[in-house]
Design brief:
Strand content: 15-25%
Number of strands: 17
Largest sheet: 5 strands, mixed
Oligomer: single chain
Low-confidence stretches: 1-20
Shape: elongated
């Protein structure tokens, strides 16, 4: 018994030494997870970094301590296996309690920012569920999708403006409708990002997340300036492209030009593939003989997925792929802020006044031009 007590004392001393200097405390309970493990991860801007794996005791309790710097809050996520079970935004000195289960139904006490983050994620998840439901249940989903997106965009805009000194606005500004369509995809969102970044820098000048937002804001501002120059120039010539088609041979935009040519930047996501069949194929069949062509530029890094979509859907227009994605020089040249995006070349010049996105808007435009 004396030996056992000595071992306990040594273990307690070791735990005290390990936690020495760690100024942020996390304690939690994992319901239905006694004896299992919780993985603690840090969000390093755009990837997860595993910090530690914590053992859950027989009563479902666990604890973890972090050494955090003043003025540098961190996004910390708890995982049970591959499932995310809690999201936290912690700063130096926080003492946080988490109640969660193996499915990720959780609550947080002791961190106002973590509470905000949970509400942000709940709203985003509800939006994604609604978009998926509309896409699967609506016979003609375009209008319903547009209405839901606009409502969510306005709601998130209000949140960002009302919480301009909270780091919880950073993940909101990077949210996506799908991998190629950011929620904040309006031309003026670069100004919004820059203003929010300026506000956050007054509180968290050294934060890695603020620096990432600043970089994105600079990119958006550059794109907006390019669009402004194009609009001020009126009808301008186009920048030619030469990219590999499905057979591997280069296909030039200049060789595809007809009376009206739609330069269509897209990605082989489920939503955009549906748009191909439900909207673009009927438009192509209706107007191609009248002088309409599509030069479709995929920005998919996975060339095989793009090629499979083109073959399976038997897309009849000119299809090319730029696997450089967002790093493609044509993304900057054509001011691509989100996907899908279209430009119209009419009689050899870009029509900068063409502001169309939906199938009905494209049809109306083509009827005027052809």
């Amino acid at each position: 018994m004396r030996c056992f007590n000595r071992m306990l004392a040594v273990a307690a001393l070791a735990a005290a030494v390990l936690s020495c200097g760690k100024n942020t405390q996390l304690s939690g309970r994992l319901h239905e997870g006694a004896g299992e493990e919780v993985v603690v991860k840090l969000l390093d801007v755009n990837r997860f970094q595993v910090l530690d794996t914590v053992k859950v005791d027989d009563n479902g309790n666990f604890s973890y301590a972090l050494d955090m710097e003043e003025g540098k809050p961190e996004f910390i996520y708890l995982f049970h296996g591959e499932r995310q079970i809690a999201s936290l935004l912690l700063q130096k000195g926080d003492k946080v309690q988490v109640e969660t289960d193996t499915l990720g139904a959780y609550s947080v006490e002791g961190s106002e920012e973590s509470d905000k983050l949970q509400k942000v994620e709940n709203a985003y998840q509800a939006f994604q569920r609604d978009m998926a439901r509309i896409l699967s249940q609506e016979a003609q989903p375009d209008q319903a999708l547009s209405r839901r997106y606009v409502a969510y965009y306005r709601d998130r805009l209000a949140y960002v403006m009302g919480n301009s000194h909270s780091l919880t606005v950073v993940p909101v500004l990077f949210q996506q409708v799908n991998p190629s369509f950011p929620v904040f995809s309006q031309p003026t969102d670069g100004i919004l990002m820059q203003n929010i970044c300026d506000s956050l820098k007054t509180v968290y000048p050294a934060s890695r997340y603020v620096k990432a937002l600043e970089k994105e804001a600079e990119r958006r501002m550059s794109m907006m300036e390019l669009n402004t120059r194009l609009q001020q120039a009126g009808e301008v010539g186009y920048i030619d492209m030469s990219l590999p088609g499905i057979d591997g041979n280069a296909a030039k935009l200049s060789d595809a030009l007809q009376k009206v040519t739609m330069v269509y930047f897209w990605s082989a996501t489920a939503e955009q593939k549906m748009f191909n069949l439900s909207s673009l194929v009927p438009l192509y069949e209706e107007f191609h003989k009248k002088g309409f062509e599509i030069y479709a530029v995929s920005l998919d890094s996975d060339k095989s997925a793009w090629a499979a979509a083109v073959r399976n859907q038997q897309l009849p227009w000119v299809n090319v792929c730029d696997t450089r994605g967002a790093q493609s020089p044509y993304v900057m040249s054509y001011g691509i802020g989100s996907l899908p995006m279209v430009w119209f070349i009419v009689d050899g010049s870009i029509d900068t006044d063409a502001k169309v996105r939906t199938a009905d808007e494209i049809r109306g435009y083509l009827r005027k031009k052809l």
